[in-house]
Amino acid sequence: MIKIDNLIKRVGDKVILKGVSLNITKGETVGILGPNGAGKSTLLKVIATLLKPTSGEVTIDGLDLKKDPIKIKSKLGYLPHASLLYDHFTPYENLKFFSKVYYLDNVEERIHKLIDDVGLRLFTHEPVKSFSRGMVQRIAIARSIIHDPEILLLDEPHTGLDQQAIGILNNVVAKLQERDVTTLIVTHDFLQAAKVCDRIVIVRNGRIADDFLLEGQDINLLQKRYQSVVEGDSNAI
Ligand SMILES: Nc1ncnc2c1ncn2[C@@H]1O[C@H](COP(=O)(O)OP(=O)(O)OP(=O)(O)O)[C@@H](O)[C@H]1O
Ligand SMILES: [Mg+2]
Fold it and tell me: How far apart are the C-alpha atoms of 124 and 134, rounded to whole Å?
Protein backbone atom coordinates (compact mmCIF):
# COMPACT_ATOMS: atom_id res chain seq x y z
CA MET A 1 0.00 0.00 0.00
CA ILE A 2 2.80 2.42 0.94
CA LYS A 3 6.23 1.79 -0.55
CA ILE A 4 9.12 4.04 0.41
CA ASP A 5 12.53 3.49 -1.11
CA ASN A 6 15.64 5.32 0.10
CA LEU A 7 13.79 8.53 0.99
CA ILE A 8 16.01 11.49 1.72
CA LYS A 9 14.66 14.84 2.91
CA ARG A 10 17.02 17.74 3.16
CA VAL A 11 16.04 21.23 4.36
CA GLY A 12 18.83 23.73 3.72
CA ASP A 13 22.01 21.95 4.70
CA LYS A 14 20.24 19.79 7.26
CA VAL A 15 19.41 16.20 6.32
CA ILE A 16 16.22 15.27 8.20
CA LEU A 17 15.48 11.87 6.62
CA LYS A 18 18.64 9.97 5.72
CA GLY A 19 17.51 7.11 3.50
CA VAL A 20 14.24 5.69 4.80
CA SER A 21 12.90 2.50 3.19
CA LEU A 22 9.58 1.11 4.33
CA ASN A 23 6.89 -1.19 2.98
CA ILE A 24 3.45 -0.98 4.54
CA THR A 25 0.75 -3.45 3.59
CA LYS A 26 -2.93 -2.60 3.20
CA GLY A 27 -4.78 -2.83 6.50
CA GLU A 28 -1.74 -2.58 8.76
CA THR A 29 -1.80 -0.29 11.81
CA VAL A 30 1.74 0.94 12.26
CA GLY A 31 3.00 2.89 15.25
CA ILE A 32 5.88 5.27 14.50
CA LEU A 33 7.93 5.93 17.61
CA GLY A 34 11.16 7.77 18.29
CA PRO A 35 12.69 10.64 20.22
CA ASN A 36 11.92 14.34 19.60
CA GLY A 37 13.41 15.59 16.36
CA ALA A 38 13.94 12.08 14.92
CA GLY A 39 12.01 12.90 11.73
CA LYS A 40 8.65 11.21 12.42
CA SER A 41 6.43 14.20 11.55
CA THR A 42 8.58 14.92 8.51
CA LEU A 43 8.08 11.34 7.30
CA LEU A 44 4.32 11.65 7.77
CA LYS A 45 4.25 14.99 5.93
CA VAL A 46 6.09 13.47 2.96
CA ILE A 47 3.56 10.61 2.79
CA ALA A 48 0.74 13.19 3.13
CA THR A 49 2.18 14.93 0.00
CA LEU A 50 2.79 18.12 2.00
CA LEU A 51 6.58 17.96 1.73
CA LYS A 52 8.49 16.94 -1.39
CA PRO A 53 11.19 14.30 -1.02
CA THR A 54 14.69 15.50 -1.87
CA SER A 55 15.31 12.08 -3.40
CA GLY A 56 14.00 8.55 -3.25
CA GLU A 57 10.77 6.92 -4.37
CA VAL A 58 7.39 6.92 -2.66
CA THR A 59 4.42 5.07 -4.14
CA ILE A 60 1.00 4.89 -2.53
CA ASP A 61 -1.50 2.34 -3.81
CA GLY A 62 0.63 2.07 -6.95
CA LEU A 63 0.63 5.83 -7.53
CA ASP A 64 3.89 7.79 -7.68
CA LEU A 65 3.96 10.61 -5.13
CA LYS A 66 5.72 12.93 -7.58
CA LYS A 67 3.31 12.31 -10.47
CA ASP A 68 -0.06 11.86 -8.77
CA PRO A 69 -0.17 13.93 -5.55
CA ILE A 70 -3.80 14.99 -6.09
CA LYS A 71 -5.08 11.43 -6.58
CA ILE A 72 -3.05 10.31 -3.59
CA LYS A 73 -4.43 13.14 -1.45
CA SER A 74 -8.00 11.97 -2.03
CA LYS A 75 -7.12 8.57 -0.52
CA LEU A 76 -5.49 10.07 2.58
CA GLY A 77 -6.69 11.33 5.91
CA TYR A 78 -4.14 13.39 7.85
CA LEU A 79 -4.27 14.60 11.43
CA PRO A 80 -1.35 16.99 12.05
CA HIS A 81 -0.34 18.65 15.32
CA ALA A 82 -2.48 21.66 14.41
CA SER A 83 -6.19 20.87 14.13
CA LEU A 84 -6.85 22.60 10.75
CA LEU A 85 -10.30 23.49 12.06
CA TYR A 86 -12.02 26.86 11.70
CA ASP A 87 -12.31 28.35 15.16
CA HIS A 88 -15.46 30.37 14.65
CA PHE A 89 -17.27 27.40 13.01
CA THR A 90 -19.12 24.73 14.97
CA PRO A 91 -18.23 21.01 14.62
CA TYR A 92 -21.19 20.67 12.24
CA GLU A 93 -20.04 23.62 10.10
CA ASN A 94 -16.43 22.44 10.09
CA LEU A 95 -17.35 18.94 8.92
CA LYS A 96 -19.77 20.39 6.35
CA PHE A 97 -16.98 22.63 5.06
CA PHE A 98 -14.48 19.76 4.75
CA SER A 99 -17.15 17.59 3.06
CA LYS A 100 -17.31 20.25 0.36
CA VAL A 101 -13.52 20.30 0.06
CA TYR A 102 -13.72 16.58 -0.76
CA TYR A 103 -16.82 16.99 -3.01
CA LEU A 104 -18.91 14.68 -0.82
CA ASP A 105 -22.70 14.53 -1.23
CA ASN A 106 -25.45 13.45 1.17
CA VAL A 107 -23.27 14.04 4.17
CA GLU A 108 -25.84 15.06 6.81
CA GLU A 109 -26.13 11.60 8.31
CA ARG A 110 -22.40 10.98 8.14
CA ILE A 111 -21.57 14.28 9.86
CA HIS A 112 -23.94 13.60 12.74
CA LYS A 113 -22.69 10.01 13.07
CA LEU A 114 -19.06 11.21 13.25
CA ILE A 115 -19.87 13.90 15.83
CA ASP A 116 -21.62 11.18 17.83
CA ASP A 117 -18.68 8.78 17.44
CA VAL A 118 -16.28 11.30 18.97
CA GLY A 119 -18.71 12.06 21.80
CA LEU A 120 -19.54 15.68 20.95
CA ARG A 121 -23.25 15.47 20.16
CA LEU A 122 -24.14 18.09 22.77
CA PHE A 123 -21.67 20.50 21.19
CA THR A 124 -22.71 20.02 17.55
CA HIS A 125 -23.65 23.68 17.15
CA GLU A 126 -21.19 25.35 19.54
CA PRO A 127 -18.26 27.27 18.02
CA VAL A 128 -14.97 25.36 18.22
CA LYS A 129 -13.21 28.39 19.74
CA SER A 130 -14.95 27.67 23.06
CA PHE A 131 -13.65 24.07 23.10
CA SER A 132 -10.95 22.57 25.32
CA ARG A 133 -7.81 21.10 23.70
CA GLY A 134 -9.21 17.57 23.98
CA MET A 135 -12.53 18.53 22.41
CA VAL A 136 -10.73 20.19 19.50
CA GLN A 137 -8.67 17.03 19.07
CA ARG A 138 -11.85 14.91 18.99
CA ILE A 139 -13.42 16.96 16.23
CA ALA A 140 -10.08 17.09 14.38
CA ILE A 141 -10.12 13.27 14.38
CA ALA A 142 -13.63 13.33 12.87
CA ARG A 143 -12.39 15.79 10.26
CA SER A 144 -9.49 13.57 9.25
CA ILE A 145 -11.84 10.67 8.38
CA ILE A 146 -14.83 12.54 6.93
CA HIS A 147 -14.02 11.33 3.37
CA ASP A 148 -13.55 7.67 4.34
CA PRO A 149 -9.82 7.57 3.58
CA GLU A 150 -8.02 4.35 2.65
CA ILE A 151 -4.95 5.56 4.50
CA LEU A 152 -4.98 7.48 7.75
CA LEU A 153 -1.95 9.41 9.04
CA LEU A 154 -2.18 10.48 12.68
CA ASP A 155 0.51 12.70 14.20
CA GLU A 156 0.40 12.39 18.01
CA PRO A 157 -3.37 11.87 18.13
CA HIS A 158 -3.36 10.97 21.86
CA THR A 159 -1.86 14.28 22.98
CA GLY A 160 -4.29 16.25 25.13
CA LEU A 161 -6.94 13.55 25.25
CA ASP A 162 -8.52 12.38 28.49
CA GLN A 163 -9.06 8.64 29.16
CA GLN A 164 -12.54 8.67 27.65
CA ALA A 165 -11.35 10.41 24.51
CA ILE A 166 -8.41 7.98 24.20
CA GLY A 167 -11.00 5.19 24.28
CA ILE A 168 -13.01 6.96 21.58
CA LEU A 169 -9.93 7.40 19.40
CA ASN A 170 -8.89 3.77 19.83
CA ASN A 171 -12.43 2.72 18.87
CA VAL A 172 -12.27 4.86 15.75
CA VAL A 173 -8.96 3.19 14.82
CA ALA A 174 -10.39 -0.28 15.57
CA LYS A 175 -13.39 0.37 13.30
CA LEU A 176 -11.03 1.47 10.54
CA GLN A 177 -8.97 -1.70 11.05
CA GLU A 178 -12.11 -3.76 10.42
CA ARG A 179 -12.52 -1.92 7.12
CA ASP A 180 -8.88 -2.62 6.19
CA VAL A 181 -7.81 1.02 6.36
CA THR A 182 -4.03 1.42 6.56
CA THR A 183 -3.17 3.58 9.58
CA LEU A 184 0.13 5.21 10.60
CA ILE A 185 0.25 6.62 14.11
CA VAL A 186 3.12 8.79 15.33
CA THR A 187 3.04 8.71 19.10
CA HIS A 188 5.08 8.98 22.28
CA ASP A 189 2.44 6.96 24.12
CA PHE A 190 3.78 3.39 24.39
CA LEU A 191 0.68 2.04 26.07
CA GLN A 192 -1.68 3.26 23.35
CA ALA A 193 0.74 2.19 20.62
CA ALA A 194 0.82 -1.31 22.09
CA LYS A 195 -2.98 -1.35 22.34
CA VAL A 196 -3.82 -0.44 18.75
CA CYS A 197 -0.78 -1.14 16.57
CA ASP A 198 0.17 -4.44 14.97
CA ARG A 199 3.57 -3.20 13.87
CA ILE A 200 6.09 -0.73 15.31
CA VAL A 201 8.63 1.33 13.41
CA ILE A 202 11.24 3.19 15.46
CA VAL A 203 12.78 6.28 13.86
CA ARG A 204 16.02 7.61 15.23
CA ASN A 205 18.11 10.42 13.81
CA GLY A 206 16.42 10.33 10.38
CA ARG A 207 16.72 6.57 9.94
CA ILE A 208 14.63 3.52 10.71
CA ALA A 209 16.29 1.98 13.73
CA ASP A 210 13.85 -0.91 14.23
CA ASP A 211 10.76 -2.38 12.62
CA PHE A 212 8.86 -5.29 14.13
CA LEU A 213 5.46 -6.89 14.49
CA LEU A 214 3.66 -6.57 17.79
CA GLU A 215 1.27 -9.25 18.90
CA GLY A 216 -0.97 -9.41 21.93
CA GLN A 217 -0.47 -5.75 22.90
CA ASP A 218 2.99 -6.62 24.19
CA ILE A 219 4.10 -3.34 25.79
CA ASN A 220 7.11 -5.02 27.43
CA LEU A 221 8.53 -6.04 24.07
CA LEU A 222 7.88 -2.53 22.78
CA GLN A 223 9.69 -0.91 25.71
CA LYS A 224 12.64 -3.29 25.53
CA ARG A 225 13.20 -2.78 21.83
CA TYR A 226 12.81 0.97 22.17
CA GLN A 227 15.32 1.12 24.98
CA SER A 228 17.68 -1.05 23.03
CA VAL A 229 17.77 1.11 19.89
CA VAL A 230 17.05 4.57 21.26
CA GLU A 231 18.64 4.55 24.65
CA GLY A 232 21.46 2.26 23.54
CA ASP A 233 20.85 -0.32 26.25
CA SER A 234 22.28 -3.45 24.70
CA ASN A 235 21.14 -5.55 27.68
CA ALA A 236 17.51 -4.60 27.10
CA ILE A 237 16.63 -7.55 24.87
N1 LIG B 1 11.04 23.15 7.86
C2 LIG B 1 12.11 22.78 8.56
N3 LIG B 1 13.28 23.46 8.46
C4 LIG B 1 14.37 23.09 9.15
N5 LIG B 1 14.41 22.04 9.96
C6 LIG B 1 13.29 21.33 10.12
C7 LIG B 1 12.09 21.65 9.41
N8 LIG B 1 11.15 20.75 9.77
C9 LIG B 1 11.75 19.92 10.64
N10 LIG B 1 13.01 20.27 10.85
C11 LIG B 1 13.99 19.57 11.71
O12 LIG B 1 13.96 18.21 11.37
C13 LIG B 1 14.10 17.40 12.52
C14 LIG B 1 12.95 16.41 12.55
O15 LIG B 1 11.73 17.09 12.81
P16 LIG B 1 10.34 16.33 12.97
O17 LIG B 1 9.32 17.37 13.26
O18 LIG B 1 10.12 15.44 11.82
O19 LIG B 1 10.65 15.46 14.28
P20 LIG B 1 9.68 14.51 15.12
O21 LIG B 1 10.32 13.16 15.12
O22 LIG B 1 8.28 14.62 14.64
O23 LIG B 1 9.83 15.12 16.58
P24 LIG B 1 8.73 15.36 17.76
O25 LIG B 1 8.66 14.05 18.50
O26 LIG B 1 9.37 16.41 18.62
O27 LIG B 1 7.44 15.78 17.16
C28 LIG B 1 14.18 18.35 13.70
O29 LIG B 1 15.53 18.48 14.05
C30 LIG B 1 13.63 19.65 13.17
O31 LIG B 1 14.24 20.73 13.81
MG1 LIG C 1 6.54 15.39 15.45
Answer: 15
Q: How far is CA 9 from CA 31, 40, 66, 147, in A?
A: 21, 12, 14, 29
Q: Is 53 in the pocket of ligand 1 (CB under 6 A)?
A: no
Pocket test for ligand 1, best of 9, 33, 40, 188 (most atoms within 8 A of CB): 40
139 within ligand 1 shell (Cβ under 6 A): no
The amino acid present at 116, given as its one-letter code, is D
The listed CATH number (3.90.550.10, 3.40.50.300, 3.40.50.2300, 2.60.40.1640) that belongs to domain 2-230: 3.40.50.300
Give pLDDT tens digits for 36-64: 999 999 999 999 999 999 999 999 999 99
Q: What is the pLDDT of residues 150-206, one digit of tens each?
A: 999 999 998 878 888 899 899 989 999 999 999 999 999 999 999 999 999 999 999
Q: The whole model's pTM is what?
A: 0.92
Neighbours of 142 (CB within 10 A): 24
Best residue among 42, 44, 188 to mutate for probing ligand 1's pocket (most ligand atoms within 8 Å of CB) is 42
Which ligand does the CA of 33 lie closest to? 1
